[in-house]
Design a protein that fits this description.
The chain is of the alpha/beta class and about 400 residues long. About 35% of the residues lie in helices and about 25% in strands. The protein is built from 14 helices and 19 strands. The strands form 5 sheets. The protein has an 8-stranded mixed beta sheet, sandwiched between helices. The two termini are about 30 Å apart. Bound molecules: ligand PMT. The site of ligand PMT has 26 residues, from helix 10, helix 12 and strand 16.
Length: about 400
């Protein structure tokens, strides 16, 4: 998600630098927009370095010059349409007045008019300016339009006076932003192990048995759990996608490697989610040399791999254990049987013959079966949204 951070000209402008960092911790992309007077207090370079993005400081480029701060003459519309939230911190009395009147005389005030996303304003100013009826009337106007105001704190102010007007704490502003964007931290304190992707079982030095798992479902689970505050260990078979930010990746190849990695980390985990498509069979003996073509039929003898989920189910302790069921028929019956036989708390069943579900799809369609007899049908949605529904069920079981 992307947030525009408007910075106005007040002594508290330096605190906006800390706010950039705090919002980034929530994995938000931050586009900083500075008013002219903000640049008297802190340089755009500071924000550019922190945000990793060009800071927008001007509405238009100098006549005849190539656009310096904007990619196009209608950048404010492009930014307005690309953000999920606009937060202005610190907001000065002057900016509050301009926003309340609908004056669009710089990039920030124009962006405010051009966007339909939630707007959060954190004012900061001298106590008399804050208490002035003009400022309070402007704030009332903005509130009536649905703008969210994070009230300033009381205390000693830079001007030497004491009273209300000090920019609210970065934590309070970030909390309001998270609340409006639906960012939750309900997995804080949990250590979640997720398995993802396929496993590979060697036939000979150049050939192996595997399956069509892309890792997308498991990676979405790891991403969602990390965003909700969990420490995440991602045990992954070979896939072509990047691991989500902030997760600990443990790459594996074979079922035995996956088993070892899972068992090594299991004791430290409070939740284990097995979304990997683990090979059920492997060649009984991998050939040390490349098998030669003989012209006739060839037979590979297979043996069952260890069932990692069932092994975890036998020594589950207080952990929540979630398995998946990739089914092509009798989905509900097979899932309920897996829930019982593997000692899991939850089985997430997907009919992998359905369009938009299962292997390598961007979306999934699942039914969640829980040990307390609860069944949740999750219609087609992104794997990330499915992941959040699964995490919700884990928390429900916990409560
Ligand atoms: O990776 P994607 O392309 O996004 O596809 C997602 C998916 C289809 C792989 C995923 O949604 C899914 O269904 N994963 C489980 C696939 C699978 O192996 O299902 P299963 O019904 O064969 O196994 C049941 C459970 O036992 C699974 O949790 C599996 O991880 C586990 N298992 C299986 C075999 C084995 N030897 N050890 C195991 O732990």
């Amino acid at each position: 998600m992307r947030v525009a951070l408007g910075v106005c000209g007040g002594i508290a402008a330096y605190k906006a630098a800390e706010l950039v960092r705090r919002l980034q911790q929530e994995r938000l992309e931050v586009q900083v927009v500075m008013t002219r007077s903000a640049q008297q207090f802190i340089t755009p370079l500071t924000f550019a370095a922190l945000s990793g993005r060009k800071v927008i400081t001007e509405m238009f480029a100098e006549p005849g010059a190539a656009p310096a701060n904007i990619d196009s003459a209608i950048e404010h519309i492009a930014v307005a349409q690309s953000i999920d939230l606009l937060v202005i911190a610190p907001a000065t009395a002057n900016t509050l007045a301009r926003l309340a009147q609908g004056i669009a005389d710089d990039f920030l005030s124009t962006l405010y008019l051009a966007t339909k996303v939630p707007v959060v304003i954190a004012p900061a100013m001298n106590v008399n300016m804050w208490e002035h009826p003009a400022t309070q009337e402007n704030l009332e106007k903005l509130r009536a339009r649905g703008v969210h105001v994070v009230e300033p704190d009381e205390g000693y102010l830079a001007c030497g006076m004491t009273g209300a007007g000090r920019l609210a704490g970065v934590e309070s502003i970030a909390k309001k932003v998270c609340e409006l964007l639906g960012i939750r931290h309900d997995f804080e304190g949990e250590t979640v192990l997720v398995t993802a992707g396929p496993t590979c079982e060697d036939v000979d030095p150049v050939r192996f048995l595997t399956n069509r798992s892309s890792g997308k479902m498991g990676y979405a689970l790891a991403d969602a759990a990390a965003r909700r505050g969990a420490r995440v260990i991602l045990v992954s078979g070979p896939v072509q996608i990047e691991p989500p930010a902030g997760v600990e990746l443990v790459p594996v190849r074979t079922t035995e490697e996956m088993r070892r990695a899972v068992l090594d980390h299991a004791a430290a985990c409070t939740v284990i989610i097995k979304a990997a498509a683990v090979a059920d069979y492997r060649p009984a003996a991998a050939q040390p040399k490349k098998m030669k073509r003989s012209g006739g039929r060839a037979t590979i003898e297979l043996e069952a791999t260890p069932d990692i989920l069932a092994e975890l189910g036998r020594a589950k302790g207080n952990r929540i254990l979630v398995g998946f069921a990739a089914e092509t028929d009798r989905v509900a019956d097979n899932a309920r049987e897996k829930l019982r036989a593997k000692g899991a708390d939850i089985i997430v069943a997907n009919d992998v013959t359905c369009e938009g579900a299962g292997f390598d799809a961007e979306t999934n369609i699942v039914t969640i079966f829980t040990r307390d007899g609860h069944t949740v049908d999750v219609p087609q949605m992104s794997k990330f949204d499915v992941a959040n529904r699964i995490l919700d069920e884990i928390l429900r079981l916990r409560s």
